[in-house]
Write a sequence for this structure.
């Protein structure tokens, strides 16, 4: 037989019959002999005999052994089928629990949210450019300072210049201007010296102050070339320019004073 459980049940059935003295053949096509016929007949009548042929009982009642064996056989076969069925279902459940990714998602099934891609925003900080200070309003602009465009120092000409024309000293700063940069600028540059288009001699002193700290100072005479100013003003809030001269001296000149900033250094004039 193909089913091992059924074969095992049949073997047990045959063994039980043999223990009762009944010959049962594993070959269903073989015909029983006389002894088998007689044994079956006696067994059917409920008779039992000893080894010497003496009858042991004289009552007649149906033998319940075949019915019990048939019931056991039925239970074994049914149990084997149930085990096979449960094993098949367990295999199907395992496959279902793993999920078949090739199958489409049923309509209405919840879909796991996807994590949005993280994008890095590009910096929008404007590039720093040069701004001419004479084109922007100063918070302080004394009477001694006059914007001149262009102004000459020696043989060179500079646009957007400033001329200091008043008598001025360190204690009486008439030639002075202050711009509120607010820390937006990083560098200051200018060319300073005596105004070629003025008469007189004398030596002029030029000073650059960042907040309360002196960043640059130089003295230039009428026959000297322009002095170049390059100053780091990173983080400076207020930038101050002033110069000193005597009344009879030639006027002082600032050739194109300007600042390098990310945004304008003030309100346009």
């Amino acid at each position: 037989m193909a089913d091992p459980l059924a074969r095992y049940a049949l073997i047990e059935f045959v063994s039980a019959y043999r223990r009762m003295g009944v010959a049962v053949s594993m070959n269903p096509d073989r015909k029983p002999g006389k002894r088998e016929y007689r044994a079956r007949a006696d067994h059917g009548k409920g008779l039992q005999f000893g080894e010497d042929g003496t009858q042991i009982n004289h009552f007649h009642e149906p033998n319940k052994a075949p019915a019990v064996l048939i019931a056991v056989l039925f239970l074994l076969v049914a149990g084997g089928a149930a085990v096979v069925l449960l094993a098949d279902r367990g295999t199907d459940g395992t496959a279902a629990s793993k999920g078949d990714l090739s199958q489409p998602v049923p309509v209405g099934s919840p879909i796991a949210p996807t994590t949005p891609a993280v994008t890095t925003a590009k910096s929008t900080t404007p590039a720093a450019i040069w701004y001419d200070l004479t084109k922007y309003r100063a918070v302080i602009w004394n009477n001694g300072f006059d914007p001149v465009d262009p102004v000459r120092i020696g043989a060179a000409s500079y646009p957007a210049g400033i001329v200091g024309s008043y008598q001025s000293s360190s204690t009486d700063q008439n030639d002075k201007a202050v711009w509120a940069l607010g820390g937006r600028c990083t560098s200051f540059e200018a060319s300073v010296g005596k105004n070629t288009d003025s008469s007189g001699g004398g030596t002029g002193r030029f000073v650059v102050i960042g907040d309360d700290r002196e960043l640059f100072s130089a003295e230039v005479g009428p026959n000297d070339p322009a002095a170049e100013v390059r100053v780091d003003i990173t983080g400076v809030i207020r930038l101050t320019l002033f110069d000193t001269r005597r009344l009879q001296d030639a006027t002082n000149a600032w050739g194109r004073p300007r600042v390098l900033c990310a945004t304008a250094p003030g309100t346009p004039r």
Summary: The first strand starts at residue 129 and ends at 132. The radius of gyration is 60 Å. Residues 65-98 form the longest helix (34 residues). DSSP finds three helices and 13 strands in the chain.
